[in-house]
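Changelog-adjacent note: as of this version, every example in the card shows the full chain rather than a window. The one below runs 159 residues end to end.
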Amino acid sequence: MESSVTGPAPSEPLGRRIARLRSTRALTQQQLAQRVAISRVALSNLESGRSVPGERTVALLAGLFDLEPAQLVEDTDYPTAKADRLPLAVARYTHAEMLEALLQRDLTWLEGAPRKVARKVLARWRTDLAAELDVTADPLERARLEGLVQRTASTHLDG
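Full-length structure tokens:
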């Protein structure tokens, strides 16, 4: 990765990129700040270019934007010395997103399963999702989990 110090000028300031990615996901500054455990003011300072995010914040933001850290800072004004310390990979999906993918896989599989099996599997999903809702504080994750609960309730597979 080339830096603005040794290579061509960055194509986009990192703060502007973060703001653009946040906007495309329809997140407010407050929502994104909560997801990466910084204040809204700190995020505003990052987006406006008044401050430079640390490696931890870049890694968390990259995961939320479904990118690797190097992809998030590539061709930006992020300092090369900091970019060199970024992890190569980060978790790119939340627990609720993983559950959504697994539920979809199970619902597809249950289309051809006996009703008795479908009822048992869906009952387990409902129990597990209820347990997840009990421990999930993030409003966006809660909304995703509530949608999954609704999907298990509205399916015709256990009827």
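Structural remarks: Residues 1-5 have pLDDT under 50 and may be disordered.
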